[in-house]
Amino acid sequence: MKKRKILVTVLILLTIFILWILEPVSMNPYGKIEIPQAQSEINFNGKAPGLTMRMDFEKKANELLNDHMNSGHFLGVSVGVSKLDFGSYVASAGFMDKWERKRANNDMLTRITSITKPMTAIAMMQLYERGLIDLDVPIQMYLKDFPKKSNGDITIRQLLKHTSGMPHYDSGWDAMSFTHYPTLKDAVGYFEGRDLIFDPGTKFQYSSYGYTLLGAILEEVTQMDYAVYMKRHIWDVAGMTKTGVEIGTMEYENKTKGYLKIGSRFVKSPNTDLSIIQSAGGVQSTARGLLKFGEAVLGHRLIKSSTLDMMVNATDQLAPAIGDDPYGFGWAVYDDPKYGRIIQHGGAQPGTSTFFALFFDHQVISVVLSNSFGTRQDAFALTMVLPIWRWKINEESKSVVNNFLESIKLYI
Fold first, then answer.
1. How many other C-beta atoms are found inside a 10 Å radius of the C-beta of residue 383?
2. Counting beta carbons within 10 angstroms of the beta carbon of residue 103, is it exposed (0 to 12), middle (13 to 18) or buried (19 or more)?
3. C-alpha–C-alpha distance, residues 180 and 275, integer Å
C-alpha cells in the first residue's frame, strides 16, 4: 500500500510538471490555435520615400513576419528596421505569454543575449578614448587579483577579439547558471582558475567569460557598477529608456515569458540567472531600444568615428582559421561586395534567440528578438531579409523571395 501511494504521488507530480512545462495542451502543437499576426507601426520623417513606398514597406515587412509565424518559426517575436535620419518600422507577432494567450507587442521586453557584447565593447572603447585603459597591457594592471596564466599575459584587445585563450562554457549545463553573483568580481571568481585553452593572441575562441572579465575591468577602472555605467554612458545617451541589466529576482512590466523550441513545440524555459555573464549577455531591451542603439552607433554619439573604425577592422582577426565569423571588437564583421560592410551580433539563451545587424555602408539597422531558445537561425534569416528588399541595399531589383535566399546563402 505504501509503495502504491508513493507511485501515485510520483505520477501526480510528474503530470503536474509536464503540464507546467507544456502549459495549455491546446497550445501544443502550436498550429492548432489562431496565431496573432503582425502588429506594426511605422515612423518615417520627411526625408524618407513617399507615402506609397512607406505603406508598401510596412505591408511587405508584415507579410514576411507573418510568413515566419504561420510556418511555426517563432512563438513570440518583436522586430525593427530603421534607416538613419529616415525613420523606423517596429512590429510584433505571436504570444509573449502562452498560458495567458497574451499577444506580443512592439515594446515587449526581452533578453538580448550576446548583443550585450558590442555594448560592452563600446563602453571599453569609451575608456580607451579617455585614456583610462591601454588595450595591450596585461589585464592585471586593472584586475590585480586575477591569476597569471602560464601561457602568457592576457590583454583587453585579446578579450575584445576573443583571442585571449579564455575558455567558453564547458558544456550546455555550464551555460545554464542558476547561481546569483552579487558582483562581476564574484562572477570572475567562478572561472578565473581555469586554464587557458591556447596561448593568448594565437587563435580564436568565442568566450562569454572573456566579456565578463571586460565588465569587471570596467567596474574597477571607473569605480562604478556595470549597470550604472552602461545606463549613464550608453543607454541614456542612445535614448534606450527600457534597457537594463536583468536581475533574476525582479518582476518587469511588459516582459515576455521565455520558452524553448523543441521540434515544433514551444515549452516553458527554465529561469536561469545571467549574473555570471552580465557584461556578456545579461541585458534586456526592446526592438525599438536596439534600433536606438544602432542609430547611436552609426551617428557616432557613443564613440568617435575613428574609434568605431578600429572596432570593425577585422583584418587581423583569427576567427576564419576555425571557420567562425570574422570578428572585430565586439562585432562580427562582413565586407560583402553587394551589401557593403555589415556588422552584427546574435545569440541564444534559455528563453530567447536574437539577432542584430548594422548595414554599415547604408546606415540601416535591423533586429529580431524571439522569446524562444532554438529559433536563432530564423531570427538571423528575418534580420537579414527585412531591410534588403526596400532600402536599395541590393543593386538588382530581385523579388523578396530571391533576396531571402540570397541572404541565407551569404550568411549561413
1. 25
2. middle
3. 6
Question: How many CA atoms lie within 13 Å of 16's alpha carbon, on the beta-carbon side?
Answer: 6
Sole residue written with cell 491546446: 26
Cα dihedral 370/218/234/335 (nearest 10) = -60
DSSP letters for 53-107: HHHHHHHHHHHHHHHHHHTT--SEEEEEEEETTTEEEEEEEEEEETTTTEEP-TT
As given in the structure block, the three cell numbers for residue 321 are 582559421
- CB hemisphere CA count around 87 (13 angstroms): 15
DSSP bridge partners of 155: 138
Cell of 366: 535591423
**Which residue shows C-alpha cell 539577432?**
355
Q: What is the DSSP letter of 327?
A: B
Element (H, E) at 18: helix 2-22
Give the end-to-end CA distance of the chain in Å, rounded to a whole number: 58
Residue 202 DSSP class: S
Question: Is the model more confident about 131 or about 317?
Answer: 131
The pLDDT confidence band at residue 192, using thresholds 50, 70 and 90, is: very high
Q: Judge whether 374 and 260 are in contact, CB under 8 Å.
A: yes
Question: Residue 276 and residue 203: Cα distance in Å, rounded?
Answer: 24
Residue 64 in contact with residue 56, Cβ under 8 Å? no
Q: How many CB atoms sit inside 10 A of residue 282's CB?
A: 30
Question: What SS3 class is residue 285?
Answer: strand
d(CA 151, CA 278): 27
What is the separation of C-alpha 247 from the centre of its chain, rounded to a whole number of angstroms?
A: 17
Closest residue by Cα to residue 339 from 295, 403, 290: 403
Q: Per-residue pLDDT for 343 more than 60? A: yes
Residues 268-295 have pLDDT tens digits of: 999 999 999 999 999 999 999 999 999 9
The pLDDT score that the predictor gives to residue 32 is 61
